[in-house]
Prior knowledge:
By secondary structure, the chain is an alpha+beta fold. The chain is built from 33 helices and 32 strands. Helix content is about 35%, strand content about 15%.
Amino acid sequence: MVDDPLAPAQGYTLDSVPYRTCTNPFGIYRIYPFGRPTYSPDHLETIDMVTDSPTLRSFQPKSHEKITRPTTLFPNSSVETLMVWYHSMNTAAFSRDVLESLVTHVLRNPTFSSHDFDTVSMHSVFSALDNVDSDPMSYFAVQDHWISGSIKIPVPVPRHGSRTLDDVPEFTIDKVYHRNLMDVIRSAFAEPASEYFHTSPYESYWQPSPNSNAQRLYDEMYSGDRWIKEHRAVVQLATAQGCQLEPFVISLMAWSDETHLTQFGSAKLWPIYIYFGNLSKHTRGKPSTHSAHHVAYIPPLPDTFSDWYLKEMGTLPTEDTKRHVRRELVNAIWRLLLDSNFRAAYREGVPIKFWDDITRQGFPRFITYSGDYPEKVLHACIKYLTTCLCPQCLVPRSKAPELGTGNDRSYRELFKREDDVDTRETIDLARTKVYIEGRALTNKELNRDILGPKSLTPTRSAFSLQLGPAGLNVYSLFAPDLLHEFEIGVWKAVFFHLIRIIRSFGHEAQRKLQILNERFRSVPPFGRDTIRRIYTNPSDMKRLAARDYEDFLQIAIAVFQGLFGEPYDRLIELLLFELATWHALAKLRHLSDVLLTELDASTTRLGRMLREFADVTLKSFKTQDLPSEVERRARAKASKQKKSAVSSSEPMNDGEQFTTPGEPRISAKERHFNLLTYKVHSLGHYVKFIRECGTTDNWTTQHGEAEHRRPKRHYVRAAKGAQVYVQGIARQQRRERVMYQVATARKMAAKNGQPSLNGALFPRFVSETPPRSSPSDHHSMSKETTKHNRLELRSWLQENANDPAFENFLPKLQAHLRSRLLEIPYAGDEEGVPDDELMKVVIVGNTIYRHAILRVNHTTYDRRRDQESFNPRTQADIMLLAHDDTPTGHPYWYARIVGVFHLSALYMGGTYRQQQPHEFEVVWVRWFGPKSDPDTPQFGWKAKRLPRIGFVDPILDDSPPFGFLDPSEIIRGIHLIPDFTGNKSGNGLGPTSVRPMRDEDKDWNYYYIGWFSHRDLFMRFRGGGVGHTSTREAADFFLGDRDEVDVEFLDAFKEGREPNLEPLIHVATAEELQSKEERRGRKPADEYDSASDSGDSDGSEEGEESSGAWDIEDGEAQDGGDDEEHQEEGGNAEDGDDDYWLDEEWDGENFENIDVEGFAPLGFDEL
């Protein structure tokens, strides 16, 4: 970036409004709509701050204002060292690594002395830590400790009602642990991280070249339209109030979700987290930075409620009553948080002193609320999966299958949910009917005529009640949820149905499933957990988390190929390609107007493909429940019968036990792909929300899922007992945050003030050899010269004389070194060099040194620095710029690293400099070539096919199979997925040591380039990556490869009009595909014997077949349903599917640990 990121562009002054900055080396400039900001943390940015790899040196926040370390919290530095270590642990289990960490970071610390503990009681140390807020000498400027409060919940009186709302009986819940929101805000702005808080929103633009049009960029929360709108509003508000301080938005991002704290126990926690959008998402998204502020733990409705209700009302509460009271409970918690102090700050602002010693007036504003669908429904106070199922709009559920059509786009704009007078009056009327007139919560008139048109509930959202009068539209807060709505939503539903289709092939089903599972397990891993090795059978769908489904999608095209027969193979390939394209675009962390328009186009294509998939599979395949779905429905039915029997029976005496009849018999029923879901509908909201609030990694629920690891860890240390552990977790959380501030202060007080090499704020307790490299380097490798990696060339080549990979090894190496010594630009392996020239290349000592790891740094599409490690013993596949003479050729070359060396060499007969020994780093590679079969279909974005490459065959191909590279030629790694429809062969190469033993001297003939496996890899083949400056020409080669939908959307965007969708959304019918199949003379799929997974039918409706293309799945109410406990969407809730991470020790069999309300696995520890 330029030296001063806020330097004015030509023609602009420091007083210009709006204010435009200079263009940086990436071609990016900013426009600040409200003038040049008085404070911006971007001038603190260094290359260390934009690193994402754990093996790169990264930054530590360094304040310009020295923080005074606390001097009274601990009796001496040894105690402080031990306490910092204890509270920096990322696990509560004591393991060998933890013991090693204790020795390294505490016992060997030069400031540590055991004698310092001679007169110290650890009980008093923890007591001092717990009472830090009451210490007048504490350096903590703000006391934001936990408060134990109480809430009162109004409970409707059945059939009788109350005279006034003041007379309504109230149920009291005590020990509600929460923190004062204003104290949390003041504390956050007093912490060192607040130095990096942004106060001024801006619009970011990218101009790829001087002659191109600028494109708007979307990345951070404060570069979106919503923040600009809120900032304009607070400026006007402050001006009207006569405020003399500079106003700014305090961006609050809320997140909540219930989680189990143990694998098999019943202990739960329902936390509310607050993140500050003023902080960059790259810092905010790391749990190690403690950016999540725990503000409340929502208590469950206690068991004593039924006792209280029976005493007050003379009858037991119904499930509808309990559900209503739970909704009231959650909103009562938020009313407690949104107290009078917060509302006053919301209206008038609050003075905040910044690190530049300037006091500004901050106005807290909620920008987003992240959660899964049940959380959104609960906080929006709408009904669950009913007519108007979306918290953002009033589009009817019946329109969900129209995703991406012109009507769908119009509906979303015309029928946005508004917290207007009509909505509030409707809810007030419903509350009058329930509380004053005593109407039942299930009253038809209430649900059909009053609440039904908008699918409302008789509960007013706390956000609406407390902040609605100040202009907040609560329905606009709810962010789309990529994890639950797509990865374990739409994509998971497609994956399930593909397995159902395979199981419908009769006697062929088991063979096809075995092939599918074997293919999944054969896909090599890629990157640091980017694509992980698959060890289990994915078709069993056991112990799968969202991360697993994401991996499945990114490799699915190659894995499912050829399992369904034409024309269905092509239909499914197109669907999988579009699902992966949509997912990749939606997950990009840096989007331009062009890419966002292409995401909009992909949404239209995906809607079309889903409708086609639903129609064709309905008419062509007889699909039934999977065995796991049958088991799940049986358990759900048994649980429902048990609850029904309990609620209808008289209260039991002490010691009396409940017995149930035999297990209900459930048969596999016909199951079709369901489009009538919120998850399908929600995909149409992403483009607009990204424009308003930045890219999806700003408001993803993954941040909250990751933060769940903290209270789960605290639970281990907390006192156990009914609800006692909540207080313990709160205390542990406060201790950890205090010690985080202590540790940060210690780092800032260090004399050298240099960036830490630990990467994270706390030690990660991993080996640091080889050492971390500088992000500015292109690559790094070890320079060890020990006997273990020393290779004497003559003897080494003699030992491998029979290995075909070593043919002409030395001449090729000499030719490569000659080119580098003579500084000849690289244009591929140099051949035909005369022997006398090769003899002039002298390798010093006739020795080379072999290394295990090569690390390559590169700038990603979103201008971050990342690093990849290549180990020749694994599948180390790379890409580099092509050096073909043809300008229209493919822009990349591909190779597999089989050796990493460094050596010294010189050139005899050249200049004096060339005759001096030079050290060289050399990579030995095996080359790939494109699939040259004339029958190979075209690949690319228009063709909807991945490119295929194969190893160069020295017998058939006119190019050498092996060669040498300067590591600086490497761009990055690639993920190669075998073409499983082909065969394996030697590819002209006999048994060789460069193949792993597991390959048994055979290679796959061809591989797919898995460009969906990584976002940066995706952009290398998509084009338009802002950070790809050095390879811009190569990446932009693909910009012209777009289908007609992309072209229409891009043209419409440039012309400022709506795209013409009608010619673009034709859906192929089953009849059209069937006729194609019959013309090919193939056996129609529906003539296969149907594999039956069903047991004997019990004659109930559970065993009846459904016939509609978009059937309502089990538990999905078509009218007025509000049963959050038993409804689920898409029929695809499965054991352990809802966390992004999954605890490997969980066996997936305990169905009682599954939260059927939110499809969340309860008790999972994220890996």
